[in-house]
Structures are given as structure tokens and as C-alpha cells.
Write the C-alpha cells for this entry.
Amino acid sequence: MTSKVEEALGYEQARDELIEVVRRLEAGGTTLEESLALWERGEELAKVCRRWLEGARARLDAALAEEAAAEEAGAARAEPEGDLR
């Protein structure tokens, strides 16, 4: 379950914070408790990013499907309706 703060994060904000979390984890020097908290925050941020990307993919797929349907409809109208001899 996500909090309202996480839902309000844009993709870029979540991605940038996730980058910082990873940097801090890789740098070391944190206690086990701090590391676990960072890891958990990173997991939450990754989910936010994934939701944004899935939403973008769905919008792109819908736009491509709509474009393909319009092209098919245009092609069907452009075809002659048979031989009139």
C-alpha cells in the first residue's frame, strides 16, 4: 500500500530519490538499521517508478492501437469496391 506522498511523487522525483538511496547504500558507512530503512525506501520508490512506466506504456500502446485502427479504416476506404464492368 502506498502513501499519498508516494502517489504525489512524479517519475523524475522518485527516480532521482532512488538514485540517491542507491548511492548512499553503495557508499556504505550506515548502520544496519539505516541500511534497512534505505533499502525499504528504495523498494517503495522503485514501485512508484514502475507504476509510472507501466502507465506510460499503457498510454503509448493505446495511442499506437488507435493510430493503427485509423490507418486500417483509411486503407479500407481507399480500396476500390470491385470491378464495375
User: Anything to note?
Assistant: Residues 4-77 form a domain with the Helix Hairpins fold (CATH 1.10.287). Residues 56 and 73 are 26 Å apart (CA to CA). The chain has one domain: 4-77.
